[in-house]
Design brief:
Elements lengths: L1 H38 L4 H5 L3 H21 L1 H6 L5 H9 L5 H26 L1 H4 L15 H23 L8 H20 L5 H11 L5 H23 L23 H6 L3
């Protein structure tokens, strides 16, 4: 039964797995480019923008735009635009993803993130290796790993709760990508100095591998899933398990859905 389930999942849903891998890979690659342009000392943009807070604001805006773009992209419309093992785990906890799909989504996300960093190294080379850039790795700020853990938990909670509220509201669903992008931008600006604003175990690992930053990697493997699972628990207590329609962040399209989906029923009823 297990082998049959694996073959069925891979045979039917491999396009969604590939989209998740490619989407996160492109996001990681984009982060490499933004970090190199904004932080490398020889970059004309870095020289033109001396204020580190302003550079962080620009980085946040860029990351937010890419996040929103991924949600609204054709790939995101079909795969659900999780692009994050913590998001996939949360929807699995909510009963919206089959076990094998959850496993392959997570594997694809880690593979895609690592592929993105490889492409970034090949493209940006020594600029990405510079200590000021450090492969875009997320590291705790001056307050330490404990504070970074708390901060990552809180922003992951806020991100997932907002995503659940938006995706499960007929009035707000179309704005989910914009809300997610705006939150990423705001978190980078306001919370970035505390933890680096990762919220993504796969992305954190991808940057940590070439940067050789291992000591505090546990923060980025534990806090995002914890925060998002707590958000799911909060949402279920407020709206009930039936209040979660689907695992897609963008469902207002004609792309197929591989999840345990209640979107059609939701749109035809009160919501």
């Amino acid at each position: 039964m297990g082998v049959t389930g694996v073959r069925k999942a891979l045979g039917q849903h491999w396009p969604e797995y590939l989209m998740e891998a490619s989407g996160l890979g492109l996001f990681v690659f984009a982060v490499c480019g933004f970090a190199s342009l904004l932080e490398h000392p020889d970059s004309p943009l870095r020289q033109a923008v001396a204020d580190p807070d302003l550079r962080r604001c620009l980085f946040g805006l860029a990351a937010g735009v890419v996040t929103a773009g991924m949600v609204y992209s054709p790939w995101g419309q079909q795969s659900g635009a999780h692009l994050n093992p913590a998001v996939t785990l949360t929807f699995f906890r909510l009963g919206k993803i089959d076990p094998w799909d959850q496993c392959f989504y997570v594997l694809a996300q880690f593979a895609g993130a690592l592929g993105g960093i490889v492409l970034g190294v090949a493209t940006f080379g020594r600029a990405l290796e510079h200590p000021a850039v450090n492969f875009g790795a997320a590291v705790p700020g001056m307050a330490g790993a404990g504070t970074a853990f708390i901060a990552e938990t809180l922003i992951s909670y806020g991100f997932m709760l907002a995503a659940l509220v938006c995706t499960n509201s007929r009035a707000l669903a179309r704005y989910t990508g914009a809300v997610c992008g705006a939150l990423v931008a705001a978190f980078v600006l306001l919370e970035g100095p505390i933890s680096g604003t990762s919220m993504n175990p796969a992305g954190a690992l991808a940057s940590a591998v070439p940067a050789h930053v291992w000591m505090d990697l546990w923060v980025y493997f534990t806090a995002p899933p914890l925060g998002m699972l707590l958000a799911a628990e909060s949402y279920v207590r407020l709206r009930g398990a039936r209040g979660v329609v689907c695992a897609k962040l963008n469902h207002q399209n004609d792309k197929r859905c591989i999840f345990r989906c209640g979107y059609a029923q939701h749109m035809s009823g009160a919501g």
